[in-house]
Write a structure and sequence with these properties.
single chain, Rossmann fold, globular
Length: 504
């Protein structure tokens, strides 16, 4: 981030006539800081430029030259294009860039860009907008979404029909830095998220002042950009707002805790509760949410998809199991993580083209901290296919090379669950401790496969929150795909050489 600031300042100092603007991340960190030079319908890409290179391309730009002979890529496009004109080659060419289209292109300076087409459409006819979302068949995305992998429209209908003043919460509090999807989207194209959010507010009957953008306390830059975008959006819709105005969406910080991103615990944090615990359901937030009001709680990824579904309904086929696209952060044993957008009919394997691996591929954990382990990424990027494969839909593909031990990796996640669960329910609180004990016994020579599997089944079916339900997934898929490694550890040997196995 600091290097990006220096490049921006160098460009502004060198410019005499050129218009230098600040944009957000494209999601591909290996290219950052990334400078773009755009003249008319031509854009040149300059990844990680030095100060000298920055001054040089600014000078050439002021003479009308984008630097076709020195830019890493040069793309020709419509001069009035509103989304990033991406090169066909390289990591930015992976997948599609529908909801990510504004990332790396939208002006995020003081004159924040306002995008309000979807919100305007929903305000003019909320019923028609709701029907359009119903026809699109959009599912919620992300563990922080009240309608995760379930039809979004059902949640919105419940909020509309429940008595009380509705609230819309943008749940962007993700403490797991493996997952950069919502942070990239809200930090790089906040206007896209706010447009979808205000559209949802119009559909359920909430005022802009009843919209809350809930972020992680460490994401200062995301908050400042979101505030500017929120004010600009409401002004564009005909309001007159300022920072902190009660008629504008409120942007707030939540604790940097994993459980604080779970959608009911997000509401607990917003209500100021020191101890975060998952809420009993039913009723869900749609009937009894923030301060007892009917509440729509959705991630930036979901709200950006709302905007797409309202503005381009033909891109969503309701006959698909999971219409639209999915954002995925590729991380793990890679040189630099990248966030990409994949059509739900495409293979997760395509995401590997956005990163450079550090070693020979052994396995991946798909779905985040408590995702599922797999030997292959030849799985469609849609919710149904991932669920059927025992994998998660949290928006993370974590790659591991052959030096990684699956027993130790799964064990680290179970230990985290045993220490960081909310403690509200017995299966999550005590089950995670028992599961950790069973995995430790493997190192002592006792591998009780049936007991481990039964415990994960019980936790999945009876835990109150996502931690208790999902931690068993990473263990179960590790057993399914790498059982011989568990048997080897019980025999006193780690096949990857990562563990010191000492039997008592």
């Amino acid at each position: 981030m600091e290097r990006g600031r220096r490049v921006l300042q160098t460009a502004r100092t060198a410019a005499e006539t050129a218009d230098v603007r600040e944009v957000g991340s494209t999601g591909v960190r290996a290219l950052e800081p990334l400078a773009l030079v755009t003249i008319g319908g031509r854009t040149a890409y300059y990844p990680r430029p030095s100060a000298e290179q920055t001054r040089a391309f600014v000078e050439r730009a002021e003479s009308g030259d984008v630097g076709e002979d020195v830019g890493t890529w040069v793309v020709e496009h419509d001069p009035d294009v509103g989304t990033l004109p991406t090169p066909a080659e390289g990591p930015l060419g992976v997948g599609s860039r529908r909801v990510l289209g504004g990332c790396g292109w939208t002006d995020l300076g003081d004159g924040a860009h306002a995008t309000t087409e979807a919100a305007t459409l929903a305000r003019e006819d909320p019923d028609a907008a709701l029907e359009r979302l119903s026809e699109a068949g959009l599912l919620g995305r992300g563990r922080g979404d009240a309608s995760r992998d379930a039809p979004l429209v059902e949640d919105l209908r419940t909020v509309r029909e429940t008595s009380g003043d509705p609230v819309v919460v943008v749940n962007a509090n993700e403490s797991d830095r493996r997952n950069g999807t919502d942070r990239t989207l809200l930090g790089g194209s906040p206007a896209t998220v706010l447009d979808g959010t205000l559209a949802v507010a119009a559909i359920v009957g909430a005022d802009p002042g009843d919209v809350v953008v809930y972020t992680n306390e460490d994401d200062d830059l995301v908050r400042s950009r979101s505030r500017r975008a929120a004010v600009a959006a409401v002004d564009a819709l005909g309001g007159t707002t300022g920072a902190g105005d009660p008629d504008a969406p409120q942007v707030v910080a939540g604790p940097d805790e994993y459980i604080a991103g779970e959608f009911t615990m997000a509401l607990e944090a917003l209500e100021g509760n020191d101890r975060l615990e998952a809420r009993l359901r039913p009723p869900g937030p749609a009937r009894h949410g923030l301060y007892g009001r009917p509440t729509a709680v959705h991630t930036p990824r979901t709200l950006a998809q709302v905007r797409e579904a309202l503005l381009d309904p033909d891109a969503f086929d309701a006959d698909d199991a999971d219409p639209g696209t999915r954002l995925v952060t590729v991380t793990g044993d890679v040189e630099t993580p990248a966030t990409v957008e994949l059509p739900t009919g495409s293979s997760l394997a395509a995401a590997r083209d956005a990163v450079d691996s550090t070693g020979r591929f052994k396995m991946a954990c798909v779905g985040g901290l408590f995702g599922g382990f797999t030997r292959t990424l030849d799985h469609p990027a849609n919710a149904l296919a991932l669920e059927n494969a025992g994998l998660g839909t949290g928006g993370v593909v974590e790659l591991f090379d052959r030096d990684r031990c699956v027993v130790a990796t799964a064990g680290e996640r179970v230990r985290f669950a045993s220490e960081e669960n909310c403690g509200r329910c017995f299966p999550g609180r005590e089950g995670s401790k028992q599961l950790l004990g069973l995995l430790r016994e493997v190192y002592d020579g006792e591998y009780r496969d049936d007991m481990i599997r039964e415990l994960t089944r019980v936790m999945d079916g009876s835990s109150l929150c996502d931690v208790g339900r999902s931690v068993g997934r990473c263990v179960g898929t590790a057993l399914d795909g790498f059982e011989t490694e568990f048997e080897a550890h019980a025999a006193g040997r780690c096949p990857s050489g990562a563990c010191e196995v000492v039997q008592s």
